[in-house]
């Protein structure tokens, strides 16, 4: 049994943030029905594209474990079909552009008339209220306005966006938290509600002490590259064959560190006696000294040395190295899936490990409209007729 | 009423990832009791430090809404006090180093003997099983090994860590998802379980299509700076007074974009007819042309122009600009809190907006051991005597 078995989710999401939420729900047993317009989720054209089938690898990893139907919500008959499903659904998730759900008459106000205990989750760039709620947004915009971009990168480099789209996917995770809180509350009160998460708010919420540093100290944090202003040594160094992160968080570890690199002499150096002093004297001495030592070694050699000594460290892995790493392999962070048209796929598994109700990847992403007959309870003739009418 | 009212959480966490999970729970109504060793959570020494009181601003924003007690879990009497609270608790959250919870006899195996329906959530660097589960970890190590660092930054810059500690805080959010799934399942089955989230897994789970690009195409994604290889124009540009992100996701928007910058001539340029062509001809032409246009304008001027035209864009905000921005103000992403020793504080609010059971920041972070009497039900004399014994 999975944790969310019996929870019925009507998934109106497209692109990335909404679907990431419903993936977490589907991986953990919710019955997720993904509704796509007749032309399909835009994400079906996002790379990588399988050459043979023309199918999107992006769509395929993101929509595993979901059933897929098509429905043209601009069509009245389609809308009635949808309303009928809302009656005994638990959750609706959407990430339409502002105003679209209302125009399509699938907004919360409309659906709660049909099912007052429905939980309606909305992911967006700038939220369901506020001065920017109507503004379009991409991940890069949310990262920029949320304050993340200005604090990522080196002091002498331009502000830098986080490579992967973390405004999107963390918004999906927060949406999932909201849905689960609302579900738990509904078990006790019977009441539904709307969940509202904005990508800009998500990014803002991840800034940790940058906010209090600004409001308490009046200091606006700036880009620091790979160092931590309050711990030293704590940096990413270039070894003979790549980069490696090393963190030395306290005096005890610094002693071990000096012994490990054969530089016990540093322990007597007045510049490095405390973490505070090491921070002050890091970029003007300690950093170069360590960089020179690291440059003479291989990543693996350093990792083994420091692992034995109990010093936190780890190589900067590229995507292939991470995929193949024994840690991610043992944790089933990569799973195999046979896709009906792409064939054998190999993509990310479930990051939340539950001992009694483990999540898993069981079924491939749906082909466009694959579950129309099953979900809508149609004969072949009915399906053809509704297709001809432009309903699905 | 809040969503999680009545849920009792025993919070054994310290530092950042575990506490971020219990903050989400506490903001939404769970009764969170934070257990600290007698010397306090290490995070009480993390900056910014209030000069007057010596109190940590980091600790203060992160531990709002929680009750605080001290307990020396190495002491047998302290452990008995803890076990007594476990009997009617719903959730235990911990992020001890591997092996510590077992040594302290507060591991899941021990606690489920006392309360079989307990939900026990564990945050760690490398998880409760797997070849690295005993290895110490910092955020920078998880970001590096998880694959994020290698994909952040510019092609000609070193691999770059994300400024804020997203391995920590997103692990906290996933832990919260796990706790809520387990709580929901327990409502139906009565069964408890353990939740296991690793910082390295968290980072790995955020890499979106980088993984399928590697496994399907055999191409290892590399750092791309601020551009998106599959959309153009999509970048961060330097204006007269700072940086601004602009994203032009399709042909329709590109037409509007060209009209807005007064360059309708580009619409006839064969190099820019489709998104695919624009991607191919971005860094060798289009990028410079747009950069030159942006460089002659102010951020606000561009934002206003593009906002009117419906083109996704937004300035790169520094921490002060973000805090003051009308969007974050209207969304209550900043809240005021009166702290007993620091005084007036101003820090981050709740990113998940629930219409019927909104989360909120109601009480300041606890002083060390502030709720010992209340939570443990002690008289002044008993408290003093237990303190003298080294129990709390």
Automatic annotation (TrEMBL), chains A, B:
SUPFAM superfamilies: CoA-transferase family III (CaiB/BaiF). It comes from the Bacteria. InterPro entries: CoA-transferase_III_domain (IPR050483), CoA-Trfase_fam_III (IPR003673), CoA-Trfase_III_dom3_sf (IPR044855), CoA-Trfase_III_dom_1_sf (IPR023606). GO terms for molecular function: CoA-transferase activity. Keywords: Transferase. Gene3D superfamilies: Crotonobetainyl-coa:carnitine coa-transferase, domain 1, formyl-coa transferase, domain 3. This is L-carnitine dehydratase/bile acid-inducible protein F. The lineage of its organism: Bacteria, Bacillati, Bacillota, Clostridia, Lachnospirales.
């Amino acid at each position: 049994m999975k944790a969310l078995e019996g929870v019925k989710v009507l998934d109106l999401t497209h692109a990335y943030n909404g679907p990431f939420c419903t993936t977490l729900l589907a991986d953990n047993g919710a019955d997720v029905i993904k509704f796509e317009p007749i032309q399909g989720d835009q994400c079906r054209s996002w790379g990588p594209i399988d050459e043979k089938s023309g199918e999107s690898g992006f769509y395929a990893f993101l929509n595993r474990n979901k059933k897929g139907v098509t429905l043209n919500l601009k069509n009245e008959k389609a809308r009635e079909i949808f309303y009928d499903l809302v009656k005994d659904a638990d959750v609706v998730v959407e990430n339409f552009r502002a105003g679209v759900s209302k125009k399509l008459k699938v907004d919360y106000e409309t659906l709660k008339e049909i099912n007052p205990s429905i939980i309606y989750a909305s992911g967006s760039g700038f939220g369901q209220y506020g001065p920017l709620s109507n503004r379009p947004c991409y991940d890069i915009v949310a990262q920029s306005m949320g304050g993340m971009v200005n604090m990522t990168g080196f002091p002498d480099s331009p502000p830098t966006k986080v490579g992967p789209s973390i405004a999107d996917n963390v918004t999906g995770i927060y949406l999932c938290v909201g849905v689960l809180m609302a579900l738990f509350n509904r078990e006790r009160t019977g009441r539904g509600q709307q969940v509202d998460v904005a990508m800009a708010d998500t990014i803002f919420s991840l800034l940790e002490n940058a906010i209090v540093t600004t409001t308490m100290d009046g200091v606006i944090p700036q880009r620091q590259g790979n160092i931590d202003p309050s711990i030293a040594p704590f940096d990413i160094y270039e070894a003979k064959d790549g980069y490696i992160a090393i963190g030395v968080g306290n005096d005890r570890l610094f002693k071990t560190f000096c012994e490990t690199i054969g530089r016990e002499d540093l322990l007597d150096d007045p510049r490095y006696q405390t973490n505070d002093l090491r921070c002050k004297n890091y970029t003007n001495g300690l950093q170069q000294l360590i960089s020179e030592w690291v440059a003479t070694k291989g990543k693996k050699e350093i990792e083994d040395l420091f692992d034995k000594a109990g010093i936190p460290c780890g190589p900067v892995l590229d995507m292939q190295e991470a995929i193949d790493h024994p840690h991610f392999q043992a944790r089933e962070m990569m799973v195999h899936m046979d896709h009906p048209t792409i064939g054998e796929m190999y993509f990310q598994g479930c990051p939340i490990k539950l001992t009694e109700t483990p999540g898993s990847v069981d079924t491939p992403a749906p082909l466009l409209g694959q579950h129309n007959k099953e979900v809508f309870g149609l004969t072949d003739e009915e399906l053809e007729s509704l297709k001809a009418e432009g309903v699905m």
